[in-house]
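Sorry to interrupt, but I need a hand with the structure work. Could you write out one complete protein record for me, on any chain you like? Just paste the record in under my message, thanks.

. . .
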Amino acid sequence: MSCHAAGGGATATAERRTGAPFVAIVGNPNVGKSTLFNALTGAHQRVGNWPGKTVSVAQGDWRTASGRRLRLADLPGSYSLLPDSPDEALVRDVLTAPAGERPDAVVFALDAANPARNLYLLSQILDTDIPLVVALTMTDVAARRGAPPGPEALARELALPVVAVGGRSGTGLELLAEAVGDALAPAAPPHGRTSAWVAGSPVAAELAALAAEAGGRTPHPARWLAVSLLCGEEPPEVPAELAERARAAADRLAATADGSGTEGGGTEGAGAEGAGAEGGGTEGAGSDTDAELLVAEARYAWAHAVIERAAPRPAGARPTLTDRVDRLLLSRGFGIPFFLAVMWGVFQATTVLAKPLQDGLGAFVSGPVSGGADRLLEAVHAPGWLTGLLVDGLINGVGQLLTFVPLMIIMFLLLALLEDSGYFARAAFVADRLMRTLRLPGRAFLPLVVGFGCNVPALAGTRILNRRSHRLLVGLLIPYMSCTARLAVYVMIADVFFGSNSGTVVFFLYVASVLLVIVMGLILRPLLFKDMKEEPLVLELPPYRLPTVRVTGAQVWQKLTAFLRTAGGIIVATAAAVWLLMAVPAGAGHGGFGKVDVEQSVFGAVTRGTASLVAPAGFGDWHATAALGTGLIAKEGVISTLAQTYSAEEGGDPRLTARLHATFEESSGGHQRAAALAFLVFILAYTPCMATLAAQRAEIGTRLTVIGFGIQLAAAWLLAVGVFQIARLMW
């Protein structure tokens, strides 16, 4: 069975039976693929792991103006079909699957502002013989940089349909649909230059012979298989004699390279296609590397020739606005302070703008909603336990979380604006020097930044890293990044105890999370990854651009609904479970079911027993440890549990704010702000949630997940105790 047969063949075949052709969007990273995918699919999309793989792929329905439905997949950004990472391996597997399982057509996103590098990957896709349409993106950026390659000129040189599109503006999408429809037509001619890149190259004759012999003998595309074998790759289901012929051909090419002085040249090609060889370099690497180098040189020579004929670059082109801005924002002295200032502004704006809306929603939930539900249940003579479950459990618990929806909207909006403007990609370059202290490449900062949103997709994002040791270390560090679920807790506690300074406190916690990543990385790397090697940073930077309402709104809506779907189900289940434990008496003489005092319930007994463990941190109260316990399931549970445990108690101030002040004042011996800060630091450092643990186990294995879990709990306790003991001397 081929790699892809297990991964997505069955799904593709099933879709084909429904009459919906399968079209894949392919291209380098940061060329506008995802923007184009969002524009084509609108709301008809979903994100999930590719069947049989652990790589997340966005898929959706593309409904054309003619009413036709196409199944569209936005494959991960890739530089080569000779993969260096799991993401690139998935792209390779999908495009080289057996004939009945690979895509019916490919839309190749070609960046008009950087076409030569993009054409390298295009030359590899041409070898798969899949019907191909080129979507020319970033034409506005290319126009500002000089004479962009026009679609007509590129179509002439490539012998492929080329359509200029604007995913953000929606231009060219109908023309793209027509071109894809023509490519899918049964009578459509095959694309015309499948071997153009190899013409005139020393590898041409060897490739032609290998492709002719491979045709019909394996399920893979013949020309792609011939190139892969010649470059030292050996896909499954390859006859032994064919692999042996490929090695002999590579030896002949090596002798040619030695005799002509080719070996060691062509650094540009070696830097891309040859990146899959550990350690890099060609000296002493063997004949397959010589053949690989010759293939890479031929591809790049073809790419540059196409661009020279389609759009000769004007002499003396002036630097663009993006180039001038990057000189400042990517500089050593200004880059990191600017990034920190931007993030402080985001958190300050979030807390200031969201507070009035949160207060209004909180008053609405605790007033009309809770009161109305209470009166309604009383009118229908509902039993006391049902009133307690619905009002004290679900409404107060879930309602407290819903008050943070305005905060989430503002946070997601600000982060989407930064992402859509092109600034976030610069963070990887700014952080490159910082990451190198951990012997990690700058691109490792990208999944870490994603962790600010959610740790689960951040863990999946480690697949962009080439080396396994890098993926494992970053997978251990991501849980220390403060996700949006933690943000809700930060904002609530900071607002209660720090008032107008809450935004600065939240910013401090995010800076502390980055510092914690660095410190834990410095500790874990020599202990677990002694032989970790560095690698250079290779990353495409998108141009700066003005965010659009449609793209930004779609991102905010997608993230908000995903958060509410995940958090909503978890919180309802957690609130119901917590109420049930609070309704069961811990022993005889404490009342009946639903009539027991909270502290005398099973829930109260368990959490009282654990309170002493965190007493040195100043928050040794059962309300706090109860919240931390449910926070192991999901951090959103911290808020609902605090609201639920206080609302279920008899007497006292009904306001959650006043109850928190009283609790922390007593548990800290009069140093409530120091205890609150220690509580926040504990929330920052200990295990994010069960979903993160599951994602960690899938990415780095059970052993490292268990080690990471233990280290996080120990670090959280030590940091919280240290923060409280120092802060109480100041407050």
